[in-house]
Amino acid sequence: MAQPKTARSKAARPKPVRRTAAPARMSHFDRAGRARMVDVAAKPDTHRVAVACGVIRMAADTLRIIAAGSASKGDVLGVARIAGIQAAKRTSDLVPLCHPLALTKVELSFGLDEANPGVEATARVETLGKTGVEMEALTAVSVTLLTLYDMAKALDKGMVLGDIRLLTKTGGKSGDWRAEG
What are the sequence ranges of the domains in the chain? Predict the structure, then answer.
């Protein structure tokens, strides 16, 4: 069972970086505009880490049942954690142009917010490879939240998933990135 912790206040949440310069050419399209998988063969292997998070809001009673581990389907948070790990490992099967990666670590954590009832899921994904793990972290969070909904929908069909975003990424040619805030 997850230990309740206070979710970050809205004011403390990172804000997306706003770029004013013209965007670089999108790497998943060739010069003719056709979709392609990026060739990463010449890139060096580097340690890459991405952290993403998202939240599912729900009724206070639903959160209490999840936190207590007393849902009729069992350990809701435990099942959601396994689903998120599995999703990170299968990202290339879900997102067409993602490279299959040998992940070295997938970690999911939960923050329970009693003041604004919900569960915040955070995924940290790592690899030693030629391409980043941002999509794996975002996929892990998304499927974790979907699984929380699936496991608790008998209690609360009005749950709302949102605020899915990348918090940080490190490694690779483009360097480190952190969401503002």
Answer: 52-178
Residues facing 106 on adjacent strands? 125
Question: Do 133 and 101 meet the contact criterion of CB atoms below 8 Å apart?
Answer: yes
Tokens 């979709």 sit at which residue? 35
150 flagged as catalytic: yes
pTM of the model: 0.83
Catalytic site residue from 39, 150, 156, 176: 150
- If you classify domain 52-178 with CATH, what class do you get? alpha beta
What is the average pLDDT value for the chain, to the nearest integer? 87
Report CA 28 to chain centroid distance, whole Å: 21
Confidence band, pLDDT 50/70/90 cuts, at residue 16: low
CA 24 centroid distance within chain:
24
Rounded to whole angstroms, the Cα distance separating 178 from 64 reads 33
Give the count of beta carbons closer than 10 Å to the beta carbon of residue 147: 22
